[in-house]
């Protein structure tokens, strides 16, 4: 942070904005937009504050002598949130187009973008969420998905707010779309974000009762009751921001004692794939097989789960909230819920880590990235996935399509990818997702037509989940990488290359040269191989999704070794080429492309990269190049193509648990070797 007064003022304002977002304290005028492209990514903006509050929550558990939340649970929750986030990105265009279609063609009446409309949208959006959430609990088919959110044991924490499935997201968003008949879509889309953000803090286990507020809004104590009431045969407290809907429709449950746990199906597994996609549906399938007749099966799917013992009929009592408020004023024991002096004195200290996280992660970088490159990337993504029928959009679609394919194969014009500022660089890795998904689908179809088995779906989901973990790490560390590059570039640069076409090609060669040695070190140094062999663990063959099967350590090592190039290369050009290199490696893992003739003497191809993956079992290791193959030929690590039936993928079939594969398994193997005395040095060559 700079020493100027304006920067300090911006920091303080931004800090209060972050806390306001967490608790739905937002100014209507500053969050009312006329276009969906102007809406900031609020859910990304609150990450520094969310991470700080989560850390403080665990510290308070530790100081109280209670057990903090299991790290595996926290990682599982955040990983699930990332899967839902990427689904939201892919479906965002469909949601926006559908809202505008209903708004323009079937709107009942038109509300203006005013403060009154903002508050009307707040109430209606929360009302729809109440019924969405209630349906997730009362319909067996939907409960099969939603019970994953209730599976954390032994208690919830703030990360549980991200413990959701893709089906939950689709149901809630679909039920919100009809509101576009009366609400302008930009205001509605903003409130959908605010509602999701507010529910994060509802899952903390530290906040006690909040007195009179609990008769109007939902609080953590009431939401704990929602999670803990299931084992007692009840189900209620479905509200998001407001609790009045539960009081009006007879689903309000008074708080349950802290020792009464109602979290269901806990301790099953930490496999995010099984929990997201298969486990609960298998249980539902077993129940369906026990019922005969199609009508009975449909009734089973649409009936309430067995634990819900309340009647199906809707109970409506509009005066119930008023009666409860009067009772509160007359009889409520406020003394039980006063905040302790220790909590009052400790709260100012919480600002210290929040200010540091905010200044490093948000203040200088995220607003610019959000306002420029991310918004442009979202627009390009909308052109590809939700094309209009106008001629200009058709032209944009064709142009964008060729642009996407060019990115996949490193076919980029130097003039259009040379930038003067890192904030102007588009998110190319996000832009290629539509084409990547299409090519991955085509690849699996080719396997099927050939009569060979397609890649296991679990492998593909594991690969994409690993890529998402690396992507969020890259977002969190991006500012550190940029500032480090500029520090070396401005203070220790050897000579200054201009932002020209010549510099672009020099950066291409040098970046690929550094990647060769980074990749080689990941194979030749034992402690690094403990991380990188996760990339080589897919069995029985690789596909295009294997390019995303990487660990966080791999990313950190490769980026650290590229930073010294900023001594001679302008950082914006270097950052762009680092993206191009990662994108090019995606198609190298396909198993359907044969040899490419003379091209293989200069560039790396899928056939040569398959040899890299398949050579390890034969005691060799080579073909480390990224884009260019000349480095392997120059330094003696080139391996001629290996026949297709030689399987060199190591450590296959261990587990599909992304947490174990990313964080622990291979390091446990290395640790066991160290304790046995079989490995006493960190450098190990695979050649005999």
From TrEMBL:
Protein name: Fatty acid hydroxylase domain-containing protein
Residue ranges of domain Fatty acid hydroxylase in the record: 118-251, 504-637
Keywords tagged on the record: Lipid metabolism, Membrane, Oxidoreductase, Transmembrane, Transmembrane helix
Cellular location(s): Endomembrane system
Taxonomic classification: Eukaryota, Metazoa, Ecdysozoa, Arthropoda, Chelicerata
Main subcellular location: membrane
Protein species of origin: Medioppia subpectinata
Gene Ontology terms: cellular component: endoplasmic reticulum; membrane
GO process annotations (BP): lipid biosynthetic process; membrane lipid metabolic process
Pfam families listed in its UniProt record: FA_hydroxylase (PF04116)
InterPro entries from the UniProt entry: Fatty_acid_hydroxylase, Sterol_desaturase/TMEM195
Transmembrane segments: 75-100
Single GO molecular function: glyceryl-ether monooxygenase activity
Membrane topology term: Multi-pass membrane protein
């Amino acid at each position: 942070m700079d020493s100027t007064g304006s920067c300090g003022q911006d920091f303080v304002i931004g800090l209060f904005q972050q806390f306001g977002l967490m608790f739905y304290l937002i100014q209507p005028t500053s969050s009312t937009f006329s276009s969906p492209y102007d809406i900031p990514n609020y859910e990304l903006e609150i990450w520094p504050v969310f991470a700080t509050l989560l850390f403080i929550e665990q510290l308070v558990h530790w100081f109280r002598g209670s057990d903090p939340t299991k790290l595996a649970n926290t990682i599982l929750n955040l990983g699930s949130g990332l899967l839902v986030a990427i689904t939201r990105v892919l479906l965002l265009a469909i949601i926006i187009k559908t809202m505008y279609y209903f708004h323009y063609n079937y709107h009942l009446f038109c509300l203006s973008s005013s403060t009154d409309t903002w508050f009307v949208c707040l109430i209606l959006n929360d009302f729809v969420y109440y019924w969405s959430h209630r349906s997730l609990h009362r319909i067996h088919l939907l409960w099969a998905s939603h019970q994953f959110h209730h599976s954390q044991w032994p208690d919830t924490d703030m990360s549980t707010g991200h413990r959701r499935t893709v089906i939950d997201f689709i149901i809630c968003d679909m039920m919100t779309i009809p509101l576009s008949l009366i609400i302008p879509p930009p205001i509605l889309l903003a409130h959908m974000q605010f509602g999701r953000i507010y529910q994060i803090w509802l899952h903390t286990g530290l906040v006690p009762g909040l007195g009179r507020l609990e008769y109007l809004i939902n609080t953590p104590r009431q939401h704990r009751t929602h999670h803990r009431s299931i084992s007692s045969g009840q189900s209620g407290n479905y509200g998001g921001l407001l609790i009045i809907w539960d009081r009006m429709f007879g689903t309000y449950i008074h708080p349950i004692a802290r020792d009464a746990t109602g979290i269901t199906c806990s301790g099953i597994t930490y496999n995010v794939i099984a929990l997201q996609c298969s486990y609960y549906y298998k249980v539902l399938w077993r129940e369906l097989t026990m019922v005969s007749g199609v009508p009975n099966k449909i009734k089973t799917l649409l009936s309430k789960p067995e634990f819900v013992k309340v009647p199906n009929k809707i109970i409506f009592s509009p005066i119930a909230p008023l009666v409860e408020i009067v009772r509160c004023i007359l009889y409520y024991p406020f003394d039980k819920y006063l905040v302790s002096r220790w909590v009052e004195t400790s709260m100012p200290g919480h600002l210290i880590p929040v200010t540091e996280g905010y200044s490093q992660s948000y203040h200088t970088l995220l607003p610019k990235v959000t306002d420029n490159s991310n918004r442009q990337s979202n627009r390009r993504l909308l052109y590809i996935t939700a094309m209009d029928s106008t001629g200009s959009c058709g032209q944009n679609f064709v142009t964008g399509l060729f642009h996407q394919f060019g990115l996949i194969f490193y076919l980029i014009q130097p003039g259009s990818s040379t930038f003067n500022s890192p904030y102007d660089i588009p998110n190319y890795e996000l832009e290629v997702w539509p084409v990547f998904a299409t090519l991955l689908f085509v690849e699996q179809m080719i396997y099927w037509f050939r009569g060979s088995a397609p890649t296991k779906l679990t492998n593909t989901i594991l690969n994409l989940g690993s890529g998402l973990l690396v992507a969020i790490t890259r977002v969190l560390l991006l500012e550190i990488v940029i500032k480090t590059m500029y520090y070396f570039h401005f203070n220790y640069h050897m000579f200054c290359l201009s932002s020209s076409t010549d510099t672009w090609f020099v950066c291409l060669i040098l970046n690929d040269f550094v990647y060769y040695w980074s990749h080689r070190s990941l194979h030749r140094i034992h402690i690094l191989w403990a991380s990188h062999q996760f990339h080589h663990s897919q069995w029985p063959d690789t596909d295009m999704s294997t390019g995303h099967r990487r660990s966080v350590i791999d990313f950190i090592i490769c980026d650290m070794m590229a930073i010294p190039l900023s001594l001679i290369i302008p950082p914006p050009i270097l950052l762009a080429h680092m993206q191009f290199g990662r994108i090019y490696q995606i198609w190298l893992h396909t198993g359907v492309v044969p040899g490419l003739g003379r091209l293989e003497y200069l560039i790396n191809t899928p056939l040569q990269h398959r040899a890299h993956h398949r050579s390890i079992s034969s005691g060799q290791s080579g073909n480390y190049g990224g884009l260019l193959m000349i480095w392997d030929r120059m330094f003696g690590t080139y391996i001629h193509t290996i026949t297709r039936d030689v399987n060199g993928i190591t450590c296959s079939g261990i587990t599909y648990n992304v947490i174990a594969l990313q964080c622990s398994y291979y390091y446990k193997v290395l640790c066991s070797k160290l304790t046995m005395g079989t490995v006493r040095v960190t450098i190990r060559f695979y050649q005999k």
